[in-house]
Design brief:
Helices cover 63% and strands 0% of the residues. The protein is built from 5 helices and no strands. The termini are far apart.
């Protein structure tokens, strides 16, 4: 600002908010309670949690997905063991989902190669095309024609029929 400005036209704002004067010398009970709570509850809990988290971070194993232990197949279950049947069914469903994901990934790679190469994809994407055909054939061999809903028992029966047919052709 220039030094010759009109002081009445532009008054300076107050420098500080006025301080309220205390009427008593006793401390505020809310301040006392908040400090008691902080030192008796908050500080110990925070320190304990920090110690636990530091121990966990030292022993932390990085997993990007949940790992399940392999359970016996349906053929390994005892007759009438419903828990084993259920576990085998859930294991089969996880395997089915994984196989679907593998097929989808291989298919996406083939589509990306087709898009990238254009009309000459058959020549330049032969490796991806062969891989897709093999994966699709294996998926169809295992899970094709199971009907809805696909289950481990239906898949086992399909495998049994396929084995009987192969034995009949070899004999």
């Amino acid at each position: 600002m220039p030094s010759d400005y009109e002081k009445d036209a532009y008054p300076k704002p107050p420098q500080q908010t006025p301080v309220v004067e205390k009427k008593t010398s006793l401390p505020n009970p809310a301040d006392i309670l908040s400090k008691v709570f902080y030192y008796s509850v908050d500080l110990p809990v925070t320190a304990f949690r920090g110690a636990i988290e530091s121990l966990k971070s030292k022993n932390k194993l990085v997993y990007y997905h949940q790992k399940f232990r392999r359970v016996p197949y349906l053929t390994d279950c005892e007759e009438g063991d419903l828990v084993c049947y259920y576990e085998a069914e859930m294991q089969w469903k996880r395997d089915y989902i994984v196989d679907q994901a593998v097929l989808k990934i291989v298919q996406e790679r083939l589509q990306a190669c087709r898009y990238r190469e254009g009309e000459s994809y058959e020549q330049n994407c032969a490796k991806e095309l062969k891989l897709f055909e093999d994966v699709a054939k294996n998926f169809n061999t295992c899970y094709g024609d199971l009907g809805y809903p696909p289950t481990a028992r239906k898949c086992l029966m399909k495998q049994k029929d396929r084995m009987i047919k192969a034995q009949g052709q070899s004999a």
